[in-house]
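Q: Okay, next protein. This is Substrate-binding periplasmic protein from Paracoccus rhizosphaerae. I've checked the sequence twice, so it should be correct. Can you predict the 3D structure?
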Amino acid sequence: MNRMIREATLARFYCDNDDQLRTYFDNFVVACNFARRLKTLSGLTPYVYICQISTPEPDRFIVSPVRQIPRLNAYGIIWFTHFPGHATAADTVAFMLGAAAMRSGFSFSGFSSGVKKVVDVSAWCRQIIEVRKKNALGGMAELRGRGAATCANGRKQMMMKLTRALAISAVVAVAVAGTATAQEGQGYWQEVQASGKLRCGAAVAPPYVMRDPATGEYSGFFADLCREFAGVLEVEPEFVDTTWDNIVAGLQAGKWDMSLALNRTPVRAMAVQFSVPAMEYQISLVYNKDNPKIPAGATSVADVDVAGVTMAVMSGTAQDKAISAAVKNATILRLPSADETRLALQSRRADVIVDASDTNLLFTQANPDWSATLNPEPALAKQGVAFGLPLNLRASDVAVVDIFLEEKVATGAVDALIAKAADEVLAASGQ
């Protein structure tokens, strides 16, 4: 290989400058990587061989090699151009597989999104490149005195060979591109179907998501929607317990396929995608009517935002973000669950609960003797509540969930599930 490259780039050409040499050199390496068939690879080109290896051994790659066209694999070019002549074909293939695995910038269906470092060869390659450049440029200087007619004849013959080789490369590229398109045809939900289960990240927030501490069973209308969507996909639902602090991060890390009951906020939209909302959401405040810290006739957050007032909120939720931005003087008490915020209010550890209006409504219905609700004007937040989906999900995959939810909302099925969840909350409180 080294002898062939030397003859093609130095022995046959007269180059006026370094740029011409580099141009001839690059063109020849293109043909070698994409069009030259090697006996040691059973008559395959290096590029096609790597593509075949990626099918039975996908763990060696973090990106699909079939998508690395028409721009050549730079690491592969470096190898064929600069590796010493005593390297074996097996060494060559191992290097190119490792180099392809280190490439990034594309996603591939079914492969891990994490970076798998195969081998760090970049510094080693740079040293080899510098040595080979010096040798090549030195040889070029010795050839400047050769006859122009001989050089012109050699250039013409070589360009004809390169033209044929690049034409073959174009055919291979089209075939490989067709393979890549077919592989990308499998959607996100088809992969979920192949796994046989739909993983739903669930953080407790009645009546959206509830969990029986004794049995571990999940209920709530978003948990029911997860079950029904799993039925559409013909897979089993699996609930993955999490917290509101981690419900977005877990989805980004691929720990579950969708997150339940996420408020559609701009900050979250930079990290994940959303389905259409299943319902509209508003934040309200609940307090003890006999608490002297809360002024009579309070209508806004500013009326209760005074020193000495403590507001309890679930950490990491949309209401946490909203009240934190609005409050200047009151103290915010962040707790991990809705039950703990209610206990804080009942024990007078907190003066106000900040939560979703429907959740607070259920709490005041269960405690009508002493609790009161404040729906602040202007509104603290009004948002849609939806499924959270991976940020890189295709529009066609998002549409699957949207169509499912739109039908449930239009037919009144969501309202029925909300009423069912509310009855469960009231029954648990003895009402």
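A: Here is a summary of the prediction. The mean pLDDT is 76. The first strand starts at residue 197 and ends at 202.
Q: Noted. On to the next one.
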